[in-house]
Amino acid sequence: MDQAYYTGISYWMKGQEMITKGQKLRLWVILLLLATVAYSPSLFGELVWDDHAVIEQNPQMKQGVIPLLTTPFASAAHRGYWRPVVALSLWLDYQTGNGSPFPFRLVNLLLHMAVVVLFCLFVQELLPQRPFAAWTAAWLFALHPAQAEAVAWIVGRTNLLSALFALLTVKLGLHYFCSAKREHLLGAMIFFLFALLSKESGIVVMILVPFFAWLKGPIERRPALNWFLSTMGIAILWFSMRLYVLGSLTRDLTDVPFADMSFLQRIPLAIAVLGRYVQLAFIPFKILPVYPGSILPANWVPSDPTFLLLLTILVGFFSLGSFFWRKEPFILGGFIWFLVALLPVSHLLLVLNFPIAARCMYLPLMGASLAVALLLEGLPLRLLRTLLVLLIVAISFSQVQSNCHMWSNDVTLWRTCIARRNGKATLRVLVEMGLALSEAGQAKEAMYWYSKAEQVNHNKYQLQVKMARAEMQLGHMKSAAKRLRAVLKDEPNNALAARNLVYLLSKVSRNRAINQ
What we know:
By secondary structure, the chain is an all-alpha fold. It has helices spanning about 5-15, 20-40, 50-55, 65-70, 85-95, 100-125, 130-140, 145-150, 155-180, 180-200, 205-215, 220-245, 265-280, 305-325, 330-340, 365-375, 380-405, 410-420, 425-440, 445-455, 465-475, 475-490, 495-515.
């Protein structure tokens, strides 16, 4: 190993302040090479899960640019999705590769690399005399196992783009609080709007910027007032645009869990959800694409043991940061970044159709990575902290590769999900497993998983129609027709069942005509 290379590594290990450009370049190469190799299994997968609806079956991908800006994201008006920046980026990839998954997946990886570089530069700027913390935070963020969902799943791009623009907003926003230059404020507002147009959770930078400006030192009243008025103006503009495109600011909450809870009832729910996210951030094993509602307490009372455990985790989280407040305020700052960035998915302010989603941790994990890096830097023995970081990086590297393999195709995704829950699966996972196998031409195995789903709830997720389609693949036309007629008897307006029955009858008629 040459001397220059060794010096670059030892700079990070010893926390030295001075480093040559060549040594810093080597550190960048190590960081980006590790991350690229870790996520490389994500490059050669297929379209997975919602990718089919968002890309393959989405007419927006075959239209011009204007519909991307003026229509809901992937025709999901009922879910309140209008994300034109994401839609435009996916459209460009579709045009580049004619629908091939590779361009989408490559761009996701490149976006992640861009966010990693920007985050590392941001922490170096935030803590210029703390090189160990800056590089460690970058490595922890780049290789956190939960990031695989945002990077390896094409639809996860919403989190990558939103985080990229949110981080640019924070960076320029802090410059504005330090310099009061209008060009910094203008740049921050442009990136803030882009963050909102990528994903709604970008709204959290309104809070993060003044909070971190305050951590760095006293803030003046005028910049704070200008920041508040400017961000409110951008938020109002964004809300107005959403109202024009979607026709409503509310979303369809039919069949959405927790929708009937009042705000006060959702407070313990939010505590439980945040506790689970903390658990996933610091014990990131067995990451799943779908987390069942059963991972949250069934009864929202103080005596519920699951709720008490999650509350304890959350209190411990804050206590740890508060303990180091005087010595290192950015530890608590990182923890607060983590929690504030999770508020949009905590079920406190909004009601979502999923309890937990690893992809939603992308932006929050910046704060957690910063806090953990500073805690590791505070360890008294230099060799111990270095070995701990290398151990965490090695384990994370392995976990990221495993999680990227999980997102290679639909069958692998749902098999892994079932395996990681020790053979147990929710109704949704059972149905998705059957659908994936059916689409892969494995109708017999699909019927096995559909039958398991039928035992849980035979009516939900259009299960009976999916089972009829699998029976048609197996050539069991009479059984399929009987199942579809039973669905139409209970639900005369079921358009999907009607279309499949018409298709089945026409196919049977054609076969009879050929045989005659």
